[in-house]
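Possible regression after last week's pipeline update?

I re-ran a chain I had predicted before the update to compare outputs. Posting the input and the new output here so someone can diff against the archived version. Not blocking, just want to make sure nothing changed silently.
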Amino acid sequence: MKIAYLDCASGISGDMTLGALIDAGAPLAQIQAGIDSLGLPSCQLATEEVKKKGFRATQLTVQHEPEHAHRHLHHITEMIDASGLNDRQKDVAKRIFTRLGEAEAKVHGTTIRKVHFHEVGAVDSIADIVGCAIAFDLLGIERVECSPVPTGHGFVEIAHGRCSIPAPATAELLAGIPLA
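New output (post-update):
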C-alpha cells in the first residue's frame, strides 16, 4: 500500500498539497487535463520552484478569471460527474467535498443540500481539491497520514465575516485529529 505522509509543521492548504504532489512526481499536464474537463472558466495551473526558509519547493498557483459564484455541493458533484476524470478520481474528489459539506452543514445548523460553498466553491479551491484527487490516483496513493496539525491562532476574514482560527467548519473537520 502506497501511503503519503504530510508533515504539517506549519499547516496545510490545498495549493501546498497539490504543489507537493506535483513535486513528488504527479504529472502537471495530466492534472491540468483533468481540471480542464471540469469546465471551470479559464483555469490554469502554474508551478514554479521556490525557496522558503532555505528549502526548495514547488509552489502551485491556480490562475483564473475573477468570479463570485457560490456553489452548492450538488453543483460541484455534477461538475465532477460530468468530467473526464476516472472513477477513483471522481470518488476521492466527491468524498472530500461531501466531508466539507457535512462540516459546513453542522456549524451552520442546516442540511448538506442547503450548504453553499463560498471559499471552497471558488475556482481555485475546486482546482486544488480535484487536482489533489487526480494526483493521489496518478501517484498510486491509497492512504494519507499526517503529523499533528498546527491550527494557528488569531482571526481571519471569510465570507461570513471575522472568525477565529480555526474557522468553525475547519474546527469541525479537525475534530478527533491530533493538533499541534
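Follow-up from reviewer: compared with the archived run. The first strand starts at residue 3 and ends at 6. Marking as no regression found.
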